[in-house]
Each structure stands twice: as structure tokens, then as C-alpha cells.
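Hey all, sorry for the wall of text incoming. These are the two entities for the joint prediction.
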Amino acid sequence: MKKPLRNQEIVWRIEKRRQSEALDALEAGRDVDELGTVTLIQAGVMHQLNLVGGMVWERCDGHRTVEDIVDDLAGEFDVERGVLKNDVEIFINDLLQKGWLTDG
Amino acid sequence: MNDSDLLDAPVRLTWDIPDNGRGLTGPELLTVARRIADAQVFYVTLEGTPLAHAAFKDFSGILKASHCKIFVACRGTSKELIRLPQVTDLIDQLLLDLSGYIDSDELDHKSLDKMIGDLRALDVDPTLSLVPLKQNLKYIPEIISYCASRLIPCFRLPNADIGDSFRKYSKVDLPTWEDLLGFRDYWVGQNQLKQQPKLEIHDRFIWEIMTPDIEQSRAAYIGCQAANSLGHIDIFGRIHPCAAWPTVLGSLLQDELFDIWDSPQRLRVRDQIAATPNECSGCDDWSCCFGGCRGLSISLHPDGQGRDLMCKGSR
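and here's what came out:
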């Protein structure tokens, strides 16, 4: 896996109000796993990504490596780097398998 | 807020644009277009006679610049066809309204062939579109055969837009569950069509009849999307939960789309959708249809307790 790139056929946007609510909830120590912050439409079906998934998705621009993405997010979340890297890799591999990302 | 309320702004909008002289002025249309673009709406279907409007290129250009996909209704009038060559690059899909091609109890193949030929000469491959009404359900198999024989890629069946401010259908036009039972029998009898265009079917119950094998995509159905991923803008720039829901949520001449989607009026609609209408209470199929088209239901039963006109009851 080199530099993951979003499938250009997928239309997407950040739900800014939702993202702000999720960040506030996270700050307050609440679980935000179920809060969608990025909406995307693939093959006519709407999907949502949660806060962490959405932040990874935003960064899959074909220019950043997985290491770059993990470095970026490590500054945003209070979590051990190895755990974060593992989670990011699992998420990216899942999206590569679904065809939502390509290995840029 | 409830679990089905997911979005800061709609993903798909329908927008009614009449001919010049009615509804919004040119500058007002541009204001509405900018607010749609700012909200990053993915898909906008321009309904009515948008191509006949002198400002078509301007408002569509604003939408296109925001990477919005633009679907454009067309009735095939000369006024529309004159403008079309100048704007084909702005249109992602042209929706040819078939209602004008059903005459004297038959589909007018000759006129339709000519229109499709004219459009193709302009390098536009139309999608055919028909609002399913009581009196035209019987033409659907013939239209699908027609699409296959003319290599029309897509046939679209949108819901009746009874919340619309200038084109309304009466209750006598709308199919009931009895009509749908008849249609189902007719469809099963006719449905030997090997080749089919892609079908875009808005209504949950018609969708079930016409695509009985597509369980997987049906599993992704999470219920009525009015005032969440869907919205409708009328000819005055007022936004509604969907094309079939008469409630006005706000005006895009006055407010940003984001602000309207964050308003109590919008959230009240989502709460209304989350509640089970009395007529659906206890139904085993609630988790399949979530009450079907809630906009049409509310238009016909303003107390919000009725079920979809096309639903017979628990199946």
C-alpha cells in the first residue's frame, strides 16, 4: 500500500456540523463511533463514515502515504501510535477491497 | 434529532423551474443556485421547463461549477430544443417526459422516435421519464420494450410531485393499492423482457413489483429520505422536504440551505417520519418499507397517521 487515492467516481462531502458535534463529543469523552461525518455516494447508494474514518478518507488524496496519514491523525487523537496505525491500515485495506480507494 | 437524521444538507434536490415570466427572476434564480452550490448538494434535478428559461445557462453554470450533477427535465418543445445545443455540456442527464407522448390511449412511437432522433443528433442520449399515475401504469411494460428496442439506457419513474406549487395531481390520478395489484398481475404477465434499461424507480411498492430479485439493494433502504438526503425547491425558491410533501421549510432567497437544514421546522419533519403512523402500527412489514412515501401519505392524510396510498396493509 503506497499512497491511497479516493475512487474519483465516488461523490463525497464533509458534514461540517456533524463533524463539529463529533469533535465536541470526543472532547467530552463520549463515544463517537456511530456519528457519521462524511457522506459519500457509491453506485447510487449513500454511505457515511464516522469521524476517524472520515478524517482518513479526507487524506487519501494520492499524495500522502499511510505513514503520513497516521502522523497527521496522531496529532488529532489521544491514542497510542501503534494502535492508530493498525486501525488506519485495517480501514484503508477494507476500502481498497471495496474499490473505494486505489493504491495511488 | 433522531437516528435517521444524518445530514447537514440534502444530497439530492429537485428544483422546479418554469418558463420565463413565472416564479423567480433571473437574479433570484442565481441566488438559489449559489446556495445549493454552497451546500455541496450532489445531484439536482431541474424540473418543469428549465431549458425554456433564458437564465438556464447561468444558474446551471453555478451548479456545474460546484461539481453538482445536473439532471434536466425536457418536454421536447421547440423552445427547449432551440436552447439545448448551447448547454449540452452543462447537462449530465436529460429526462424526456413521456406524458406528452401518450395520446389517445397509446404510446406515440412515431413522435417519440422523431424526438429521440433529434436529441441524438445533438449528441444527447435521453433518459425516459414518466410519473406513474393510475391511468398510465399499463404503458410501463411497453415503454420498457421501447427502451430496449431503441437502446435507451435508462427509464425513470419518479413520484408524483403533488407538493409542487404549479403542477398538481389530484387524488384521482394517484395509483392506489388496488391499481398496484392490477399492475402487478399485468407486469408478471408481460415481464418476459430479456433486455431492460436501467430502471430508476422512486416508489417503494412499484420498485418491489418491478425488481423482485434485487433484495440486496433493498436491504440498504432506510426509509423515507424527505428532509434528510432529499429536498424540493418550488418555483418561488421555497424548500420542501421532498416533491410530494407540501410543508415549506424555508426560503432559499432568505436563508442558506445549511441554516434551513439546521432549523426546527426541518427537524420536526424528521421526527414525524421517525414516528409510526397509526395505520402502520403493528405491521410486520414496517421494517421493509417504513411507511413508504410519507410525503404523499401526509398530503392525503394531514394528521400524519395514514399509510402510503399504494400499500394495502400488512403483506
